[in-house]
Structures are given as C-alpha cells and as structure tokens.
Amino acid sequence: MTISTHKFHIYRFFICLIFLATSYSCKSSKQVEAKKSNPSEIVTKKVSDEPTKYIEPKTEPEHNVVEAEEIVKSKAEYIIAYAKQFQGVKYRWGGTTKAGIDCSGLIYESFKSQDITLPRISRDMAKKGKKIALKKVHTGDLLFFKTGNRRNSINHVGLIVAIRNNDIEFIHASTKKGVIISHLNEIYWLKAFHEARRIL
C-alpha cells in the first residue's frame, strides 16, 4: 500500500465519522424540536361528543319560602293551643283572663301570646289582615260574624282550629256557653257568618 492510498483511507474514515456524528446530532435535534413543537399532546384534553347538560342550581328563595311557611304554621299551632286553654271559661264582657273572657278578648290574648297585637274589638279586628274566601281558609284564620239583633255590624269573632270533612271548626267565647268549639256548618253560625280574614 502506498502512502497516498493510506492517506486516502484515513481521509475516508474521518469523513464517515463526521457524517455519522452529524446525522446523530440532526436526529436528536429533530426529536427535541418535535417534542417542543407539539405541546398539545400534553395539555389538551379530549372533548366529549355528548352535549353539555344544564343543571339548574337550587336557589335560596325556595328554602326561604319553605321556612316562612313552617314559621306561619308553627305560630298558628301555638295560637290555637293557647286559645284552647280557655275552653270552659265563662263569658264575661271585656274579660281577658280565665276568670272570664269575651270573644274578642280570647282572640286578642291568643295572638298576643305570639307577639301579634290586634285591636281589642272584633269589628276593628276585621279591618286587619287579608280577606279570604271560605274555601281557602287555613287553621289560624279568623271568622267574623254579625249575630243577634246587631246584624248590621260585626260583633263576634272566632279562631279556626280545624277543617274536617268540609266543615270548619272554630273556637270562640259564646255568651251562653263560654269558650267552646263550634262548627260553621251549624245553621245559626252559617247564617251569621260575614267574612274570613288571615292575619298570619
């Protein structure tokens, strides 16, 4: 082998080394660039083909309405329970105690037990609250009557304590029998009935 041939082989060997090094370097840089240029593989999420379902959030007013209804119901129950403590007490005009009580006194004291102040006279009580139809009354509502010889003005009041079998039961102070529970379906009371009102 001559010297020039030997040099040629050495030269070709170095050329091969340089080519291999360059190829490897290019391949590595391309892989790095590929990774850098495709960040979506890491950060993107698969989007579902299903339509988004709208779930209506629960609002506070619903809870507030329910709580308000429970408070009214509770007040009515306490007022009725207080009034029933007077059952059997004799009638006394202007009375407000178990020694004797009149119809408006019974209602006045029963509502007062729940910090609700009403006028002392039945015809003035009938100016408070909201007038309602009989078919819409609840326990705790008031019934107003025009009785006896004074049918031109309200002179009697009762508190609804129960509604059963299409009949309304109310507690009141009767002049003859004292504090009793009567039925609106009784002919006398049905004829004397004037209006129903809601205070609560």
From TrEMBL:
Cite the GO molecular-function annotations of the record: cysteine-type peptidase activity
Task: Please tell me whether the keyword Zinc is annotated for this protein.
Answer: no
Concerning InterPro entries, the annotation shows:
Murein_DD/LD_carboxypeptidase, NLP_P60_dom, Papain-like_cys_pep_sf
User: So which domain of life are we looking at?
Assistant: Bacteria
Q: Which GO terms describe its biological process?
A: proteolysis
NlpC/P60 domain: residues covered: 73-200
Coiled-coil annotated residue ranges, if any: none
Could you list this entry's UniProt keywords, alphabetically sorted: Hydrolase, Protease, Signal, Thiol protease
The yes or no answer to whether the keyword DNA repair is present is no
- What protein family does this chain belong to? Belongs to the peptidase C40 family.
Query: What is the recorded name of this protein?
Result: NlpC/P60 family protein
Native source species: Allotamlana fucoidanivorans
